[in-house]
Amino acid sequence: MRVVSGIQPTGNLHLGNYLGAIRNWVRMQDEITADGDDRAQLAGGGSAPKNQCLFFLADLHAISQPHVPAELHRGSLEMTAALVACGIDPMRSILFNQAQVPQHAELQWLLSGTARMGWLNRMTQWKDKAGKNREGQSVALFSYPVLQAADVLLYQATHVPVGEDQKQHLELARDIAQKFNNDFASEGAPVFTLPEPFIPPVAARIMSLRDGTAKMSKSDPSDLSRINLSDDPDTVMRKIKKAKTDPEPLPGELAGLADRPEALNLVTIYAAVADRSAEDVLGEFAGQGFGAFKPALGDLLVETLRPISRRFTELLEDRESLDAILATGAARARTLAGPTLDSVYRALGLVRA
Ligand code: TYM
Predict the structure, then answer these.
(1) What's the CATH fold of domain 223-313?
(2) Residue 161 phi/psi, 5° resolution?
(3) N or C: which end of the chain has fewer CB within 10 A?
């Protein structure tokens, strides 16, 4: 099993990222990779293990939109600290940033001969982000999904844990891999493994606390719309208290939340964080209003986030260790990327010494 996934290092890591993706990264890491004594051996550079997790900061993706260089640099170090604080273990998983592994950008170009304009034109994220001003967007925003395909195909990923909003990009990665495998082969063998998206059955799309029809997002201008993993307890309680709701009590059945998106979102968050089903949570709170539910949700979040934000703050103070984690991860990633890239050059008939 080869698990690969990424996150843009822009803005804060929020509860949507955590429940939709990062928590599953940690679970997959804990399920499939070695621990204990094996860890030291792997870190010492033994042969590539059969099961491997690679998690990265999509810093090359982040330049597809206007950005402030100093903020991107700081964001990359903060996101590294946040991922480790959430439980990504840089000894067991390969944790790195794209910019230190040039093979990502290299493979993107090589795949650009296979990706079709029509496929990219249909991407909903492109349509949403570009809006009516397509002509004014960067080329990188348009070809963003080709880089994303390169990110996973480079490592022959088998599983890609992501939230719901990345599903279409991963389908595109599969289409690109399939077309490339059909059109070219390296020494008679297909070049790419087709990656499977892993989208969690609950919490795959956490919504904004201010609008139950909009995704919780790093780019929402209102900080009240999201819970950041670094928020202190008072901030978490205040954001939950101010979260948009309705005056009705909670129903006993999930069907009763069908046209109450904000209420459904808070119940979903509670259930996901407590690792219970939404039905079970409604069973406990049926008939109660948000005056009772919100403080319970706030307490649950504070308790869950406390160890993460404490560790995050400690890690941020050790800048050298963060740099070292990324440098070590990048060296390991570059080694794994080499053979795929060689096959791609060979399959395309490109002469390289
Ligand atoms: P990004 O940085 O927007 O988000 C990182 C991960 O968090 C998930 N996520 C959510 N899940 C549930 N509810 C939400 N409100 C929510 N918001 C975000 C995302 O689905 C994602 O899994 N293009 C990607 C980064 C990327 C990538 C890749 C991912 C680049 N290359 C290769 C997987 C494989 C992105 O911008 O994610």
Answers:
(1) Tyrosyl-Transfer RNA Synthetase (1.10.240)
(2) -80, 120
(3) C
Is residue 132 among the annotated active site residues?
no
Confidence of residue 11 (pLDDT cuts 50, 70, 90): confident
Is the pLDDT score of 36 beyond 50?
A: no
Confidence (pLDDT) at 33: 86
The yes-or-no answer on residue 215 being catalytic is: yes
Strand partners, 52: 2
The response to whether residue 108 sits with its C-beta less than 6 Å from ligand 1 reads no
CB 148 near ligand 1, within 6 Å:
yes
User: Superfamily assignment of 2-205+319-348 in CATH?
Assistant: HUPs (3.40.50.620)
Please pick, among 127, 129, 167, 294, the residue that the annotation labels catalytic.
Answer: 129
- Atom 9 of ligand 1, residue of closest alpha carbon: 17
Q: Is the ipTM of this complex over 0.90?
A: yes
Cβ atoms of 273 and 202 closer than 8 Å: no
What is the whole-number distance in angstroms between the Cα of residue 324 and the centre of ligand 1?
A: 25
Atom 16 of ligand 1: nearest residue by CA position: 16
